[in-house]
Amino acid sequence: MMAGDWLQGPYVYYLYSTYGFGKRDIGQLFIAGFGSSMLFGTIVGSLADKQDRKRACVTYCIVYILSCITKHSPQYRVLMVGRILGGIATSLLNSAFESWLIAEHNKMLVSG
């Protein structure tokens, strides 16, 4: 999943340019995504620990799907929402799956 997230960067830039956006607008879209990840990254990990790690992984899938759907729209506001959702999804990707794996492993150690 991480590789897919990383590989899309250059193609998303090209997609935005085909929608007629200039470097400034595209840069703002990317900064919104990175900023969203930075902001929500501090919150998402602890929420996954307090709520349910598996649910956080499913939430990642849903949020990332919504982020991808927004890329089909040439409207700047829709793309901005998609970048923010993408940042949230990236935060989940980098925290929820690993913490879920570790928690399940620890359960197996205790019960086994």
Account of the protein in words:
This protein is mainly α and 112 residues long. The chain has six helices and no strands. The two termini are 30 Å apart.
For the structure shown, list the relevant keywords.
mainly alpha; 6 helices; 112 residues; 86% helix; elongated; single chain
Order of helices and strands: HHHHHH
Taking all Cα atoms into account, the compactness measure Rg is: 16 Å
Q: What is the residue-mean pLDDT, rounded to a whole number?
A: 89
Low-confidence stretches: none
Distance between the termini: 30 Å
DSSP helix count? 6
Percentage of residues assigned to helices: over 70%
Which descriptor suits the 3D outline?
A: elongated
Which structural class matches the secondary elements?
A: mainly alpha
Biggest sheet, open or closed, and with what strands and sense?
none
> How many strand elements?
0
GO cellular component, one term: membrane
Protein name: Major facilitator superfamily (MFS) profile domain-containing protein
Keywords: Membrane, Transmembrane, Transmembrane helix
GO molecular function, one term: molybdate ion transmembrane transporter activity
Please summarize what this structure is:
Keywords: Membrane, Transmembrane, Transmembrane helix. By secondary structure, the protein is mostly helical.
